Amino acid sequence: MKNLLRVLSYLKKYPTLSALNIFFNVLTVVFSLFSVVMIIPFLQLLLKKIPLVMQQPEFKMNARYFLEYLKYILSKDIAANGPDGSIIALAKFCVVIAILFFFKNLFRFLALYFLSPIRSGAVHDIRADLYSKILLLPLSYYSKERKGDIISRMTDDVKEVETSIISFIEVTIREPLTIIIFLAFLLMLSPQLTGFVLIMLGITGFIIGRVGKSLKRQSSEAQSASGHLLSLIDETLSGLRIIHAFNAEAFMHRQFAKINGGLFTLNRKINTRRELSSPLTEFLAICVVCSVLYFGGILVLRYGTLEAETFIGFMVLFAQLIPPAKNFSTAFYNIRKGLASAQRIFEILDAQAEIPEKPSALAVKEFKSEIEYSHVSFAYYNYDNQKILKDVSIKIDKGKMIALVGQSGAGKTTLVDLLSRFYDVGDGKIMIDGVDIRDYKLKDLRHLFGIVSQESILFNDTVHNNIAFGIEDATLEKVIEAAKIANAHDFISRLEQGYDTAIGDRGGKLSGGERQRLTIARAVLKNPPILILDEATSSLDSNSEKLVQDALIKLMKGRTTIVIAHRLSTIQYADEIIVMQEGKVTERGNHIGLMAKDGIYKKLVELQAF
């Protein structure tokens, strides 16, 4: 119920449209009632089952007065037209019924017309909130979640919420109104028979509820399996080169078949239960009709407490309750599945942003003097909870180039990730210009850094938009200037559409060196005071490395630079080299001084481990 209310809370933005939808639904139900009720007295008079009613009935607030007044109006019209009065009345009656049905369907269309933007708007808002939350959540969240499952929640689950819960809104408004208004009229016709109807409907609702109880749990399992399947597809597409190289097609096919088979079984069970709703509801409705027919017949034939004409009218009106009751029960089945999807959506929306920003956070626009790591310790709190960094203290002065070296797993990348607050320190603190970075506004803090990583992160967009990524006022002239500094302008100019060329998924149309030079151009355009180079040349061939290295030298000029590197050519001119091992700083100094110590750094150089 909580998740249902949260989904429905998205409708609060559309009060006017909601009010119009309810208004036209009320009119739809009222005109539907009139179109049915008018048939009863007219047929009685037309078939001469009762005499003409020439005396206006005394006003009473009940259904009997309404029916008697209709008989009075029809009787006057029949009598006023002489021998052909019945024929003329029949013609007028047909026209009136046609008009009533026209307006009934017109108002139904208007109700749906005003519901459409509510439905689309609510789904739009849910998807927008999801995307905003995905952008805010820290990297640690995604290390625990499957990418395919997150995509599934943003697509399949949101679609399920739309088709199940948002669609339920239409049924929730129109069908209960129909049931309430028709039941109120039936109650005025016969309180005894209406009470019996309510009891039977209660029993029917209980049975339907029991049958659909497990649907939510199975739907949640199916959506989770769907996310797992999407993850496998994503991994397959990303790793096709390795799959082919290791002849692992059969293995991946077995993995896919296992997940796909499980999803098939779950969906079969879900669809079986959902499809059961319509025939089950119809059978139960017939049982209720037969019970009401029998009970009403007793009231007419044995006790005489109900007139035969009234009983016929009651049954005609009661028959109009079956379709909305059937629609409501079908929607009940669907909403169980929709609630499972809503729960998966809200798990993301309720996830804690582990990188909080203080309400009184400080603005920072420039880097003035120094970066300081003070007794910093950190653990990812994964399967082993071991600390990656252990009591690290480093000071980096403005304008200096600092190199971090060490074997894989020593904590180098973690050290710079903490500086950008991709994660927060466990113990100790990191300060920029003497202020704890947790006291700065997060957006302002990250604006100080430009990052060029080992993996070239590019988007399926044009060259221009990839270089200008995140910079709103980037002109073409500035983009070209940044590309020239990054040694990228020449190859960009040779592309079919130059800077407007689409580079494909993850920049797949470009070589490794070309992709890396685009990321350098992006960093140049941002013009940050602090530059972080995370093994930016480690995956390149010699020719590409030379071009990229030249671009990096231009980029580093006049900036504070932190370099993580495995190659001597990148760091031998660093102002200070910091050697890390098992999360600790073991050596520090320049290249000449560290080589003279005959320590860990010298061994790494001799082994060419970096």
Can you tell me about this structure?
The structure is a single chain. The protein has helices at 2-8, 15-37, 39-46, 63-80, 85-136, 139-142, 147-189, 191-211, 215-238, 240-245, 249-303, 308-319, 322-349, 412-419, 442-447, 463-467, 476-485, 489-494, 512-526, 542-556, 568-571, 591-597, 600-607, and strands at 370-379, 387-397, 401-405, 427-432, 435-436, 449-453, 530-534, 560-564, 576-581, 584-589. It is of the alpha/beta class and 610 residues long. The chain has 2 domains: 2-349, ABC transporter transmembrane region fold; 398-410 and 448-607, P-loop containing nucleotide triphosphate hydrolases (Rossmann fold, 3-Layer(aba) Sandwich). The strands form 2 sheets. It has a 6-stranded mixed sheet with strand order 6-7-8-3-9-10, with helices on both faces. A 4-stranded antiparallel sheet has the order 2-1-4-5, with helices on one face. The protein is elongated and about 125 Å long. The two termini are 57 Å apart.
